[in-house]
Amino acid sequence: MNVVRKMTLLVAIISLLFCFSTINETYAKYNTSLEGKTNMSVARWHILVNNQDVRNNSSTSAELAPTFLGTEHIAPDVIAPTSEGYVDLIIDSSQVDVSFSYTITPDVDATSSVTDLIVTGYTVNSSEKIAISNGQSITDNIYKIDNVNLTTIRLYVKWDDSSNSKMTNEEDTNASFMNEQAKLKLNIQFVQIPN
Question: 0.85 exceeded by the pTM?
């Protein structure tokens, strides 16, 4: 009986080792792991407005002096009541990989010698002039699919001398004597267009 017992014990140990080996192989089939790396490019967001980088801000402000055209009664590049001119904004989106919208909000700069500057209209890339009311924001989209790298927006400005103007005739005269510029402040905001 001793021999039978030893044989039974030996067969039991061999069976147990076989079971552990089978279980370990079966578990290993479902416990295989794989490591890998993926490289994905992050979309670029490098917008320039008149060569000013707006990458660190979602909006920017620019203080610009308009170019005045002159008339038969007003010399070019000078400001006088009823003078009309323009300001050009060039949006460089050549380093941008997504579609985005922009909003331009014009206002008179606090240091401007003329507080009655108004924006009367605008064009985009020399298109037809679009009239706007004073203080109205300009909003449009630039789509990546259109492959537009430069967008030129021309804002038309005027020294408002109508009955709605804020400056009196005396203030108009004093502003003409000051050897300072009429300045326009433009707040520009950029937002990615969601899918």
Answer: no
